[in-house]
């Protein structure tokens, strides 16, 4: 009872904690929804206010093309607040200078009717909004003119102009309103979209025409306030552009304000020129610009009123929260905030992509674990099931009709089972067991010993065959599990690379730029792609001077000093457009270089040889020298050897482990053809940073390393790929030295001396006698000596690949420039 009560208390405690956690999560979610709802309501309220002002706005004192265009775009972007925006536009039209509420309401109704008809036939689309607005405006205005019998050429022209203006404004609002509805996926706006946004804001200001607070005109205060915002954010170009657009629209709304265009443009330019200061400097520039033009364009009263308007705009500007300015700066191209938002967006995309790749990696890892677990469980349970099935089969066939069955299997079960097991063990050891070799004690216990032996031998052959195929299945599962693990590892490395690309390298780029500009080099752009040790990649666009190789002589040595690692020019490309610039990519310079030479001949002087070779840099700092000999001779053997090298090269370039790559190659070669086709593989993976070399020899002949006068053989005893379902891969690692010559050959060359000679000693002496160090000359000389040994007869396909390893010597030494410090590399993403 005490335990039960204690458990109940603990259960109630845990349930209480869990209930509190659920309540906390729920309250946090509710709070988050309240915040989102508040932000949405704030933007909705702003759109409703804009609808009110656009309903009141007019140009040329008789045209009102703004309201219907705004309502139409709201219909497609924020349908949830359409009725509120419509009511606001209706209220604004009641307060217009020339009331045109009836026209506006009729135009909105006609637009909605046409839109509903299109939706019924599934033809509705936002791209049709400008045409619908044009049609609604034109039809309503034309019908009104026909009703009052006042249709003239002038009135027809004016109603056409209003309809066209509605169409154009609809196109503009489609680009600008999504900024306020929060439906854009990112903050990237084109310059044309910025102009559309400015036109929308200026159109909204038109709705304040005629509002006065003492001597201060509201539309002038708002226009100058808008100029101050864009001048601070975008500089002189945006300040002047906003001044021109705003002044133009205000002058259309009020013909007496035509001079505002030049005043606002000049003020915006001066304010933008001082944006590098602070808000006060921008405000000072706008005050200077507006004061100068007001002094020349108006009377003393106008100048004083303009000063008051400018001061009111400055006061609003200084009271504007920093968050509003930062939000506006995100939409202006070229600003730091816009660049940061783009980088944040790209970083989110990279993180999402890396997360997806990691998920796939984990899926493959789990699949590999499930295959391994299934195989292990099968191995444990299979033996018990097989033995039990074996005993049951023997008992049914040999003991079923025996009169002593109940005595043997009921009364002496353990003794009979022991004898059966012993006989099965003896048959497993010696399948050709005869009746004379049956143990005497078994003959005393069983009257059908010979019959049991025959049945047991037949069942054992079936059991052995079944066990063989089950082992094949288990081996296949092992291979699939290893391949899935390899793919998972490759995808995990890819996810790390994706994350590593998102590192911020602005400080390193600025340090490199300052160092190069101090040397007087004209640098256009610098992009630091990677600063990982051994995998440096920097792209520089610089001014190209004909006749001087600044990249190799100055920039690369200087980068080597700054980074602390040898940097070399990887490639250089002249720009086809834009004279005088070129793109240069700098990368990590390898510590060692590999020079290769190849010589070969086909059997009997035939055109196709069954041997294939490959010398390629794998891209991860390793250089592969590979040789393959297909079974037989001719074109088919060559296709087999080329396939083996191509598959192995692709697997290694993808980042797969060497042993797993060989096993995968073996399984592919076994499955691709039902014929007995196999190929040898002889590959040397040379690390170009420390010269450590890994040899993979699968059924191939020995290779040799010539170091001075010493010749070192390298051999292994693995079968060729494509013969057995499972092969053991032995990797041999040997550190090479500068000046070493690696010689790899097929059996056509190694077997040249014949069977009666020690081939390895003969080949070592042959290699020692060759004096040249040039790989191509070395290969040609060795092949020529084999020809002479056989008196010009080519008995088999012969191929020899020679590689010489040399320490890389930079063309230009690094140099230290005063004031340049060693760069601090970013931490690698783990």
Automatic annotation (TrEMBL):
Transmembrane segments: 43-75, 81-114, 126-144, 156-182, 194-213, 225-250, 257-274, 280-299, 311-332
SMART domains documented for this protein: PP2C_SIG (SM00331), PP2Cc (SM00332)
Superkingdom field: Bacteria
Pfam family name, one: SpoIIE_N
PPM-type phosphatase domain span: 595-805
Keywords on record: Hydrolase, Membrane, Transmembrane, Transmembrane helix
InterPro entries registered for this protein in UniProt: Bact_Sigma-Reg, PPM-type-like_dom_sf, PPM-type_phosphatase-like_dom, SpoII_E, SpoIIE_N
Gene Ontology MF terms: protein serine/threonine phosphatase activity
The protein, known as: Stage II sporulation protein E
């Amino acid at each position: 009872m005490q335990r039960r009560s204690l458990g109940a208390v603990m259960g109630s405690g845990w349930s209480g904690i869990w209930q509190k956690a659920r309540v906390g999560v729920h309250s946090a979610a509710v709070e988050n929804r309240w915040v989102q709802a508040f932000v949405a309501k704030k933007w909705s309220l702003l759109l409703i206010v804009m609808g009110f002002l656009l309903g009141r706005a007019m140009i040329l004192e008789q045209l009102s093309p703004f309201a219907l265009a705004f309502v139409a775009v709201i219909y497609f972007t924020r349908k949830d607040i359409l009725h509120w925006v419509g009511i606001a536009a209706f209220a604004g039209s009641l307060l217009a200078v020339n009331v045109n509420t009836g026209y506006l309401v009729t135009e909105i109704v006609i637009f909605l009717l046409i839109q509903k008809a299109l939706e019924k036939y599934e033809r509705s689309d936002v791209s049709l909004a400008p045409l619908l607005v044009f049609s609604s405006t034109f039809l309503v205005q034309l019908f009104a003119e026909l009703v009052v019998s006042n249709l003239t050429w002038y009135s027809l022209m004016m109603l056409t102009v209003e309809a066209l203006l509605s169409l154009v404004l609809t196109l503009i609002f489609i680009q600008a309103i999504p900024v306020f509805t929060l439906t854009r996926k990112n903050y990237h706006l084109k310059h044309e979209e910025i102009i559309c946004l400015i036109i929308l804001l200026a159109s909204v200001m038109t709705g304040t025409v005629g509002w006065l607070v003492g001597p201060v005109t509201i539309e002038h205060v708002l226009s100058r306030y808008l100029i101050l915002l864009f001048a601070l954010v975008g500089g002189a170009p945006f300040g002047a552009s906003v001044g021109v657009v705003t002044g133009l629209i205000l002058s259309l709304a009020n013909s007496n304000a035509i001079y505002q265009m030049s005043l606002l443009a000049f003020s915006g330019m001066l304010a933008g020129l001082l944006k590098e200061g602070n808000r006060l400097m921008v405000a000072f520039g706008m005050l200077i610009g507006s004061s100068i033009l007001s002094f020349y364009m108006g009377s003393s009263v106008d100048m004083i009123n303009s000063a008051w308007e400018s001061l009111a705009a400055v006061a609003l500007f200084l009271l504007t929260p920093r968050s509003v300015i930062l939000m506006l700066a995100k939409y202006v191209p070229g600003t730091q905030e816009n660049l940061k938002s783009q980088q944040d967006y790209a970083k989110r995309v990279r993180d999402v992509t890396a997360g997806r790749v990691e998920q796939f990696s984990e899926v493959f890892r789990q699949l590999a674990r499930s295959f391994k677990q299934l195989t292990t469980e099968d191995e444990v349970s299979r033996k018990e099931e097989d033995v039990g099935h074996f005993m049951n089969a023997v008992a049914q066939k040999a003991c079923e009709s025996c009169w002593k069955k109940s005595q043997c299997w009921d009364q002496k079960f353990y003794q009979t089972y022991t004898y059966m097991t012993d006989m099965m063990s003896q048959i497993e050891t010696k399948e050709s067991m005869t009746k004379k070799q049956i143990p005497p004690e078994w003959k005393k216990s069983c009257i059908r010993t010979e019959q049991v032996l025959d049945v047991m031998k037949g069942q054992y052959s079936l059991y052995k065959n079944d066990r063989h195929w089950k082992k094949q299945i288990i081996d296949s599962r092992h291979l699939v599990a290893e391949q899935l693990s390899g793919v998972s590892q490759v995808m995990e490395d890819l996810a790390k690379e994706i994350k590593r690309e998102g590192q911020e390298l602005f400080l390193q780029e600025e340090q490199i730029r300052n160092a190069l500009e101090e040397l007087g080099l004209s640098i256009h752009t610098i992009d630091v792609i990677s600063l990982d040790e051994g995998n440096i990649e920097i792209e520089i666009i610089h001014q190209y001077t004909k006749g001087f190789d600044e990249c190799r002589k100055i920039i690369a040595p200087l980068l080597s000093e700054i980074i602390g690692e040898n940097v070399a020019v990887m490639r250089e490309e002249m720009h086809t457009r834009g004279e005088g610039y070129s793109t240069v990519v700098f990368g990590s310079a390898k510590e060692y270089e590999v020079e290769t030479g190849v010589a070969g001949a086909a059997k009997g002087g035939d055109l196709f040889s069954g041997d294939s070779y490959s010398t390629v840099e794998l891209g991860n700092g390793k250089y592969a020298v590979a040789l393959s000999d297909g079974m037989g001779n001719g074109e088919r053997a060559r296709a087999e050897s080329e396939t083996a090298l191509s598959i192995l090269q692709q697997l290694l370039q993808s980042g797969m482990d060497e042993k797993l790559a060989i096993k995968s190659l073996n399984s592919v070669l076994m499955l691709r053809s039902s014929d007995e086709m196999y190929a040898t593989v002889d590959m040397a993976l040379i690390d170009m940073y420390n010269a450590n070399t890994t040899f993979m020899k699968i059924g191939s002949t020995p290779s040799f390393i010539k170091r001075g006068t010493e010749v070192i053989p390298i051999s292994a005893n693995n079968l060729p790929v494509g013969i057995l379902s499972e092969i053991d891969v032995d990797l041999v690692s040997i550190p090479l030295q500068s000046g070493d010559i690696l010689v790899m050959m097929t059996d056509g060359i190694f077997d040249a001396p014949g069977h009666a000679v020690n081939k390895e000693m003969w080949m070592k002496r042959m290699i020692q006698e060759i004096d040249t160090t040039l790989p191509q000359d070395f290969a040609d000389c060795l092949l020529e000596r084999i020809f002479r040994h056989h008196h010009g007869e080519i008995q088999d396909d012969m191929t020899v690949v020679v590689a010489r390893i040399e320490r890389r010597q930079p063309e230009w030494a690094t140099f230290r420039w005063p004031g340049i410090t060693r760069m601090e590399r970013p931490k690698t993403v783990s």
